Amino acid sequence: MLTVSDALALVLVEAVRGTSEIVPLTNALHRILAVNLLTPHDSPPFHKSLMDGFAVTTAAAAAAAASGQEMIRLAVVETVTAGMVPEKSVATTSAIRIMTGAPLPVGCDCVVPIERTQFDEAFPDHVVIPCDAIITEANLMRQGGAAREGSQLLAAGTQLQPQQIAALAEFGEASIDVYRRPTVAVLATGDELIPFDQPLRPGAIRNSNEPMLMAQAATCGACPVSLGVARDTIDKLSLGIQQGLQHDVLLLSGGVSAGTLDLVPQQLAAAGVVQIFHGVDMKPGKPLWFGTRLFESHTTLVFGLPGNPVSSLVCFELFVRPALEKISGICTQRESGLTARLSQPFTAKGSRPIYQPAVISIHDGQFVVRPVAWNGSSDLKATVEANGMTLLSSGHGPYSAGETVPVWFWGDGRH
Ligand code: AMP
Ligand code: MG
Q1: Residue 205 CB less than 6 A away from ligand 1
Q2: Ligand 1 center to 385 CA (angstroms)
Q3: Domain 48-141: what homologous superfamily?
């Protein structure tokens, strides 16, 4: 049987980056940039003051210091606040009162903070400044000091966070080229399923996989589309599959094991979906099915997720999430390779590697993972305590407390 990493590699071969679209900057949060962006102008766009104070020339201080003066008195010829443009320049006998963010006057190569200055009532419209406060290039930023026109601003594949939204705004990028959000159709299967807002009746259970998978797809930035429940009949199933194949990804839950009504693999084949694998060496999730369907140069990835809720949950996190990230154009796979120290000894039972629901937390600056009590793939209730999972295998032998093990956060991660 395929290992998880071999199966994931097969999935990622099929997951290809999607096309892009233009969105207004105000809608670009968390979207993935589709192009490399260069700065269209210098930042800051003009020489500017970084303090409230006085714009001066250091030549003034040099002259005073040469004649042994510790203080220098300069005539204040103008006041410039942020948003204004100075009309006058500064020379060895003059200063301009300037506020943070205002453009520097011609001749200025130093801003003296207001806290370092004094006033002499005998000389209104003058400022007195200690010579040692006049330091070349102090308290100012030169045009292009943060970024030169034409330098790299953001790389394609960057997921836009608030600081990048701000940088785009600073450079006047009002329309942003981002990757399209993949559409993910979710089709639950099973005669026993009733909607979650219905009272239970004998033999029935509520359809919890559909809202779970919709929510998981949403945490990937994808557009989830509900296809409802397909009953375990060929007609109903093939109708749902046809609808699902209109999308970038089709997630089916249930019907991929060995039961008499597990019709999903045969109906996917009938719909032209080519099987890539069926069965992965893992617990939960062993019956996972994966295939693709190419139609008019558009490929739909099709995952047949095992119906047991924890199997669906884990298979989504291990296989569907990385596929969606790749389709979405994210340049780095999220938090792969994370490890934590086991909080307690653990003995894994059974022959397959176990993806065990767990609580991942930080102690003394290090990730620690505590497996939660869990009764297998149908025990969804155990997962509400967990925020992720850890990988434990019986081949390893008993685990001791403090051992380092791989971990994955579920959903949005560390919440
Ligand atoms: P299956 O893979 O169809 O054999 O289903 C395996 C188990 O998962 C059965 O106990 C199903 O009742 C349960 N199951 C299947 N689909 C869902 C679903 N959408 N929500 C909750 N449980 C499900
Ligand atoms: Mg079923």
Answers
A1: yes
A2: 21
A3: Molybdopterin biosynthesis moea protein, domain 3. (2.170.190.11)
